[in-house]
Specification:
Elements: H1 4-16, H2 20-25, H3 27-34, H4 47-55, H5 57-60
The structure holds heme C.
């Protein structure tokens, strides 16, 4: 369970701070991430993800 804090805290850190701030200290990882499918998988950038989310019941409740 040593990974649990990272699993919980990392999404919070990434959501609550400007991703560009990670670039300051992790430039190589940041540039890899910039070109990755992971970066393109958000609701904003992935049309299929967006279409599924638009029909999801939690969206009406303002949750994700
Ligand atoms: C002020 C410099 C700095 C900033 C800004 C920064 N980090 Fe780090 N980060 C470090 C240092 C130093 C380490 C520990 C050394 C290492 O593991 O490379 C580290 C380690 C990590 C690790 C663990 C890596 C491992 O292999 O265990 C993760 C994950 C991480 N940072 C993510 C982020 C994310 C996401 C952001 C932006 C929200 C961020 N960091 C912003 C300096 C920073």
């Amino acid at each position: 369970m040593r990974l649990l804090p990272i699993a919980v805290l990392l999404p919070i850190m990434v959501n609550s701070s400007d991703l560009n701030s990670c670039n300051r200290c992790h430039p190589i990882i940041y540039s890899e991430f910039e070109q990755s499918m992971h970066k393109k998988s958000t609701i904003k950038d992935d049309k299929i993800h967006q279409a599924v989310w638009n029909k999801h019941p939690l969206k009406a409740k303002g949750e994700y």
